[in-house]
What does this fold into?
Amino acid sequence: MRTRLLIFIILFFIAGCKSKSGVPSGVVAPKKMQAILWDMMRADQFLADYVLNKDTSLNKTTESLKYYQQIFALHKISKEQFQHSFSFYKTHPILLKTIMDSIAAPPKDTVAKGVQIVPISDSAIAKPDTTVNGSGKLLPDSTKIRKRIKKLVVN
It folds into this structure.
């Protein structure tokens, strides 16, 4: 009897120590869900700004579904998998919050490949001309000029 009670207590503690952030096997992983939601938000923004704004005869719902199907095909999931995963994340608000917070910065794998951000070098910053009328003759040092003006004003 004692051994059964001991085994039950051990199993209870092991079950209690299970990770709360884990997702079941049928649910899309958080990183992939983040990328899917990011693409869906971009598609909605594109529809609102360019497609539906130009052609008001289009139905927003059907156009959105067309783009969503393309996104699902791109990420190799079905609509049902997405709905099941999204309902799971809605019942786990901590996981959903981390996904939605990370959408503020776009996922690195969705950034266009081949685009390289080049930092501005010092040579790109306009520097004042240190010559007199572009003649090549250098201007005198400004500290020397200030000292001369100070002497003239004091005297």
